[in-house]
Amino acid sequence: MAEHGIELKGSSFTLSVVHIADHDITEVKRLLAEKIAVAPEFFRAAPLVINIEKLQQTPDFISLASAFRDLNLVPVGITGTKCDETRAAARAAGLAIVSTGKAAVTQVQVESKAPPPELLNSPTTKVHRGQVRSGQQVYAPNGSLVVLGAVSNGAEVIADDSIHIYGALRGRAVAGAKGNESARIYCQQLMAELISVAGHYQLSAGLQGEHWEHPVTISLADEQLTLDRL
To answer: Hey, how many other C-beta atoms are within 10 angstroms of the C-beta on 68?
Structure first.
């Protein structure tokens, strides 16, 4: 229903979740800075949810949110607590309360193809054998990444050049992490939470069209992500 130029609609977005286990905000900020250095374009102005379930007491949310913003991150909310006092403190700092849940995963059998030997043997290629599991991150600095298996929901693969996934991509793939616009993402089954090439990204909701659950290559052209069937 639209009134006076405003329309409210339900939608869903994929957000990165930062799990913190230290009340020392200076230390949290230092660790975040190290993480950002791995893929600066991907994290630039990225919206984040802060998971605080490992903390023993309510953190200083105002200072914590300020530390995130100092790093050009956008803290949008917290998760990981049922304490009313903690939730009230988060709201007072301008943070939303976010509930997370497990989504159903569609299982589709995909026939894996062997990567070309020249790709596996390249000195600039990092090879990960097996599944990249939820919560795991695999990064290939200064080169390409080959994954001989699937990338699970909640997993993340990053490369400064291209990413080749010989399996299903259900998590996140960030190619051209340091700005290489010629980088590409190849996967045998597209079911991604997020894809990104040289800082240009697309979320799951925008990918669920004709290329969903099919083998694709993803490239960047005229500052737009382009998907082509393999």
So the answer is: 20
Per-residue pLDDT tens over the stretch 83-117: 889 999 999 999 988 865 544 344 444 445 666 66
The DSSP annotation for 97-127 comes to: E----PPP---------PPPHHHHT-TTEEE
Q: Model pTM greater than 0.70?
A: no
Query: What whole-number distance in Å separates Cα of residue 88 and Cα of residue 146?
Result: 45
d(CA 139, CA 64): 27
CA 61 – CA 63 distance, rounded (Å): 5
Q: Report the half-sphere exposure of 144 (CA within 13 A, side-chain side).
A: 19
The alpha carbons of the chain give a radius of gyration, in whole angstroms, of 19
User: Which of the 8 DSSP states describes residue 149?
Assistant: S
Q: Count CA within 13 A, CB hemisphere, residue 153.
A: 11
> Tokens 């992500």, residue?
225
Measuring CA to CA, which residue among 2, 4, 29, 8 is closest to residue 18?
29
